[in-house]
């Protein structure tokens, strides 16, 4: 399951004999029904949200499952993990023991390179109480003081992020956390409340210093918005990671230099550069494919 197999179910089943079934979309309900069917020796064809290889070798694809209401899902079964074996520290801080949590699923933005975008577009939110219940449980039961909030964009809904912060503050939780955000979804009010609730690091997907490339990627932001977001975030005392990419189809050497220069001009604490990768299911993948830049191993394309 997961984003990769969601988009590559057909070729994966056709080319990898070790794989019998692929769960498409969200996996909680589908996986449970799949396991119940397996242990009951029932046929899989009645299940939604899967692709599987039948007895005669044919690949069968079933209708997509409806998305679940997030608050209806139980808290993850953290007790099934020996959490003492996991030594992850807070993203961007690298000192405080941390664990990953998610308050929302989906992203309504239209970036051409994003595999998350190809997986799920509709933004769905856990209630702030439901989400902070999990944080408090992990804090008090397992002693976690650091939390990596892995939402695609925590700040997509201003009301959502402010209410999460208020819930953390109300419970007097002594925690710190990392969040991913877009530069056009933060303002001074949001950032101050996040800082008061324990946010110590924000990751901004900046991508490029070229207005032309930002438009090609359909980021929906400008370099002016990027500078403004970095400046107001700096005033709050929250550390910043700027994520950049190079190697976009059609990007020139001068535009790559422009992005590097732009990254140096921003007052971020850390700049991470990645080479553009055409993930299956994205528009970037289709562009690379149309330009004959994908042959065999998609991860080494463009």
Describe this structure in words.
This protein has about 300 residues and is an alpha/beta fold. Helix content is about 35%, strand content about 15%. The protein contains 11 helices and 11 strands. The protein has helices spanning about 5, 10-15, 30-40, 115-120, 130-140, 160-170, 190-195, 210-215, 225-235, 255-265, 285-290; strands spanning about 20-25, 50-55, 60, 100, 105, 125, 145-150, 175-180, 200-205, 240-245, 270-275. The strands form 3 sheets. Strands 4-7-8-9-10-11 form a 6-stranded parallel β-sheet. The chain has a 3-stranded antiparallel β-sheet with strand order 1-2-3, covered by helices on one side. A hairpin with a 5-residue loop joins strand 2 and strand 3. It is globular and about 65 Å long. The mean pLDDT is about 95.
Distinctive features:
302 residues; alpha/beta; 6-stranded parallel beta sheet; 3-stranded antiparallel beta sheet
Structure summarized in a few sentences:
The protein is α/β, with parallel strands linked by helices. Helices cover 35% and strands 17% of the residues.
